[in-house]
Amino acid sequence: MKNGRLRTALLAGSLAATLGCGAPHRYQNREMDFAAIKTVAVMPFWNLSKDTLAAERVRDVFSNMLLATQAVYVLPNGEVARGVSRVGLSSAVAPSSEEVVKLGGLLKVDAVITGVVKEYGEVRSASAVSNVVSLSVQMQETATGKVVWAASSTKGGIGWGARLLGASGGNAVNDVTEQAVDDLLKKLFN
């Protein structure tokens, strides 16, 4: 009898965890015509993780996967850096609305994307080890500098099964990064 209750409790807990993770974390301006966005600049991402190169790696994956959708043209990083230098941004990772408008005019882009890498790399829980990537991005249209879309995604990590069984492994950090970016792009285009 106790085993049945334990199984029921574990099943209910895993169902609650699964349903809780599925909530969409995004904002989308309903008045924005996203079809009008043809060219975007992906700014350097802000890095809150322990890995000093995480932001550069995630930005590269994000830019390449966004370009691969063929929905928009992504300005090369060098052009973005040149624009940041010319405009004299106070912070390339968090430009103000006015700076986004100036940068958009100089670079001839319709939108600017900024991001924050919150977690990147290996996480441990008891004897379980896995990779996790957590990031948030936002898009500002360059006519007014308003945020028109924002979303976050976390992929990888240690599930309850790995915690109970002490399993380790998981996917490579680049694969987890691609999963997180893919999730963000689905939130952008759906």
Offer a concise description of the structure.
The chain is α/β, with parallel strands linked by helices and 190 residues long.
Quick one: how many beta strands? 7
CATH topology of the domain at 24-116 and 138-152 and 182-189: Rossmann fold
The helix tally amounts to 6
What are the secondary-structure elements, in order, as H or E?
A: HEEEHEHHEEEHH
Features:
single chain, 190 residues, alpha/beta, Rossmann fold, 7-stranded mixed beta sheet, 6 helices, globular, disordered N terminus
Model description:
By secondary structure, the chain is an alpha/beta fold. The protein has a domain at 24-116 and 138-152 and 182-189: ABC-type transport auxiliary lipoprotein component (Rossmann fold), CATH 3.40.50.10610. The chain has helices spanning 2-21, 54-68, 77-87, 97-107, 160-165, 173-189; strands at residues 26-28, 39-42, 46-47, 73-74, 111-125, 128-141, 147-156. Strands 1, 2, 3, 4, 5, 6 and 7 form a 7-stranded mixed beta sheet that branches. Strand 5 and strand 6 (128-141) form a beta hairpin. The protein is globular. It starts with a helix and ends with a helix.
Please write out the topology.
Elements: H1 2-21, E1 26-28, E2 39-42, E3 46-47, H2 54-68, E4 73-74, H3 77-87, H4 97-107, E5 111-125, E6 128-141, E7 147-156, H5 160-165, H6 173-189
Parallel strand pairs: 2-4, 2-5, 3-5
Antiparallel strand pairs: 1-7, 5-6, 6-7
